[in-house]
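Appendix B, example 12.
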Amino acid sequence: MKRKRLLAAFMAAAMTASLAACGSGGSGNASGEGTSGSTETQTITMLVQQSRNFDGLQEMIKKLEEEENIKIDVQVVPDDESLNMIKMKLNSGECPDLIDYNVPAIYDIVDPAENFADMSDEEWVSKLKIPENVTAGDGKIYGFPFLSVPGVHGFIYNKDVFEQCGITEEPATWEEFLDVCQTIKDQGITPIHMPKDSWVPQVLMTDNFAKALGKDATEEFSEKIMANETKWTDVPEFAEVIDQYLELYEKGYINDNFASATYDDSILAVAEGTAAMHFNGDFFAASVLEANLDANIGMFAMSMTDGVDVMTENMSSAGFVAYKNSENLDTVKKVLNLWATPEYANLYFADRPAFPAFEDVDGGPVPEYLQEVNEKFIESGKVIPEFNYYVMDLNALFESTLYVYYVDAPAKGNMDGAQIMEKFQGDFEQYMKDQGAEGF
């Protein structure tokens, strides 16, 4: 029921946001308000995913050191290593004070009450536009978000490449999309760039699983699968979506080096026009423009299922959690309270316009690549949650199994959609037994 309330809160925000959108060796706790009340520099540690070490975040960190005498020692890690790194550091008890991850998704991967500091009574919580978005099942808030409406999924594309290839309109159906890919390939350009990072290709599946089933059937399936009343193999749409995804590789529409390419390579490929498209959240478009301010970028929704004209939304925001046993928790809390103010948060959005999580923060104008999407889908309410939203308790299992299969299958050519779902059904049953889940 909580997740239903979250969805209702999101939809209300999305439709009104139109065109506005573990202990570490630190050096002591913070004291004083405003400009630092202490001349001694306080140091805290922070783990950040490589793709989210934004210029705006770096500016916020720089401002802290200059004005508050608070230095943040940042450890940047590859995205595909981030979750394992977080778990390892939490298990060792030697965890950074601040950890970058999606909020509230991290709650379903790591026990928040056991590992993260309760922030429910912090000053910044009162400034949240939609506090329900980051409230855990126990009613407490453990995560600091940057976004109120995290973003929608679709194909981000280089308009200049489309024009170069004589493509004048965005494809409206999957068959039209495949024709566009072939046209681009015939011009010697990579139609779609994919990296090795397992979290990236799964976005296409979490998007299309939800579209293939529809909102009500997705919710019904999620309830039945967690009660062991159905199987993943009982839903043919899952295998069909995966097969359509694998077809993109078979037809040569994906970059040849997908097994070694990085997420940053995908950004640069679209920014420089060596690839035409990439499927992800709209945040990818902002990263492309950071890499090339002159890039002419667009975005469109695409469904593998005929007649489905909706976009899916990522219900988790980029943000931070604080290690519960940090020796520097007072300093960490001061940092987050500062980061929720316009003076700091505006820096985050200066080069990456979006919908801020906090009141009075300027998220900047809706970028051009989102204007049509905002009008056609968000304003009109044609947005549904991604499939993963309904089964967030399985995030850890997805990360270690299903997402990996999405990368291995085209690389090794050893599984089709039905075989992937059969293999995952076995993983799922064992996982639920290991968790002591009722009915397994």
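Residues 312 and 384 are 5 Å apart (CA to CA). The chain has two domains: 22-150+316-365, 153-313+383-434.
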